[in-house]
Amino acid sequence: QVQLVESGGGLVQPGGSLRLSCVASGRTSSFVYMGWFRQTSGKEREFVGGISTAGDMTGYSDSVKGRFTISKDNAKNTVLLQMNDLKPEDTAVYYCAARTLGASRYDIWGQGTQVTVSS
Asked: Chain-wide mean pLDDT for the chain?
Protein backbone atom coordinates (compact mmCIF):
# COMPACT_ATOMS: atom_id res chain seq x y z
CA GLN A 1 0.00 0.00 0.00
CA VAL A 2 1.33 3.40 -0.99
CA GLN A 3 1.28 6.11 1.65
CA LEU A 4 2.27 9.78 1.75
CA VAL A 5 2.79 11.49 5.11
CA GLU A 6 3.28 15.25 5.36
CA SER A 7 4.85 17.17 8.22
CA GLY A 8 6.28 20.60 8.96
CA GLY A 9 3.19 22.78 8.97
CA GLY A 10 2.53 25.38 11.63
CA LEU A 11 2.08 29.04 12.41
CA VAL A 12 4.52 31.57 10.98
CA GLN A 13 4.60 35.34 10.69
CA PRO A 14 4.39 37.11 7.32
CA GLY A 15 7.79 37.13 5.67
CA GLY A 16 8.84 33.99 7.50
CA SER A 17 9.75 30.54 6.21
CA LEU A 18 8.60 26.96 6.64
CA ARG A 19 9.73 23.69 5.16
CA LEU A 20 7.23 20.92 4.53
CA SER A 21 8.26 17.29 4.18
CA CYS A 22 6.46 14.42 2.51
CA VAL A 23 7.67 10.88 3.14
CA ALA A 24 6.51 8.21 0.71
CA SER A 25 6.28 4.52 1.52
CA GLY A 26 5.14 1.44 -0.33
CA ARG A 27 5.36 0.97 -4.11
CA THR A 28 6.99 4.32 -4.85
CA SER A 29 8.61 2.93 -8.00
CA SER A 30 5.28 3.58 -9.73
CA PHE A 31 5.53 7.35 -9.16
CA VAL A 32 6.11 9.61 -12.17
CA TYR A 33 5.65 12.98 -10.51
CA MET A 34 5.24 14.25 -6.99
CA GLY A 35 3.69 17.55 -6.10
CA TRP A 36 2.17 19.87 -3.54
CA PHE A 37 -1.33 21.27 -3.55
CA ARG A 38 -3.14 23.52 -1.11
CA GLN A 39 -6.72 24.18 -0.19
CA THR A 40 -8.60 26.73 1.87
CA SER A 41 -12.13 26.38 3.12
CA GLY A 42 -14.69 26.79 0.36
CA LYS A 43 -12.14 26.83 -2.46
CA GLU A 44 -10.88 24.34 -5.01
CA ARG A 45 -7.64 22.54 -4.32
CA GLU A 46 -4.84 24.53 -5.98
CA PHE A 47 -1.64 23.22 -7.55
CA VAL A 48 1.46 24.68 -5.86
CA GLY A 49 4.33 22.90 -7.54
CA GLY A 50 5.59 19.55 -8.76
CA ILE A 51 8.76 17.65 -9.49
CA SER A 52 9.58 14.65 -11.67
CA THR A 53 10.78 11.54 -9.88
CA ALA A 54 14.19 12.01 -11.48
CA GLY A 55 14.23 15.48 -10.00
CA ASP A 56 15.14 17.06 -13.33
CA MET A 57 11.89 18.90 -13.96
CA THR A 58 10.00 21.25 -11.66
CA GLY A 59 7.01 23.50 -12.10
CA TYR A 60 5.29 26.07 -9.92
CA SER A 61 2.13 28.10 -9.86
CA ASP A 62 2.59 31.80 -10.57
CA SER A 63 1.46 32.65 -7.05
CA VAL A 64 4.49 30.93 -5.45
CA LYS A 65 7.14 31.13 -8.17
CA GLY A 66 10.33 32.63 -6.81
CA ARG A 67 9.31 32.03 -3.18
CA PHE A 68 8.75 28.26 -2.97
CA THR A 69 11.20 25.52 -3.96
CA ILE A 70 10.53 21.80 -4.38
CA SER A 71 13.30 19.25 -4.01
CA LYS A 72 13.65 15.47 -3.64
CA ASP A 73 15.75 13.19 -1.52
CA ASN A 74 15.42 9.86 -3.31
CA ALA A 75 17.45 8.01 -0.71
CA LYS A 76 14.84 8.94 1.90
CA ASN A 77 11.79 8.81 -0.41
CA THR A 78 11.11 12.39 0.63
CA VAL A 79 9.85 15.48 -1.19
CA LEU A 80 10.45 18.85 0.40
CA LEU A 81 8.67 22.17 -0.09
CA GLN A 82 10.74 25.12 1.08
CA MET A 83 8.47 28.14 1.51
CA ASN A 84 10.05 31.57 1.91
CA ASP A 85 8.61 35.07 2.20
CA LEU A 86 5.29 33.64 3.29
CA LYS A 87 2.17 35.76 2.95
CA PRO A 88 -1.21 35.54 4.70
CA GLU A 89 -2.73 34.32 1.42
CA ASP A 90 -0.46 31.25 1.63
CA THR A 91 -2.54 30.06 4.59
CA ALA A 92 -4.06 26.70 3.67
CA VAL A 93 -3.94 22.97 4.21
CA TYR A 94 -1.04 21.68 2.14
CA TYR A 95 -1.25 18.25 0.56
CA CYS A 96 1.48 16.08 -0.87
CA ALA A 97 0.47 14.07 -3.92
CA ALA A 98 1.91 11.58 -6.38
CA ARG A 99 1.02 10.73 -9.94
CA THR A 100 1.57 7.09 -10.78
CA LEU A 101 2.56 5.57 -14.12
CA GLY A 102 -0.40 5.55 -16.47
CA ALA A 103 -2.46 7.99 -14.42
CA SER A 104 -3.70 11.17 -16.09
CA ARG A 105 -3.67 13.13 -12.85
CA TYR A 106 -2.29 12.98 -9.33
CA ASP A 107 -3.90 9.90 -7.79
CA ILE A 108 -2.16 9.34 -4.44
CA TRP A 109 -2.72 11.87 -1.65
CA GLY A 110 -1.45 12.57 1.84
CA GLN A 111 -3.62 13.66 4.74
CA GLY A 112 -2.52 17.30 4.64
CA THR A 113 -0.74 19.68 6.99
CA GLN A 114 -1.98 23.10 8.08
CA VAL A 115 0.08 26.20 7.31
CA THR A 116 -1.06 29.47 8.88
CA VAL A 117 0.62 32.78 8.07
CA SER A 118 -0.43 35.44 10.53
CA SER A 119 1.01 38.12 12.77
From this structure: 95
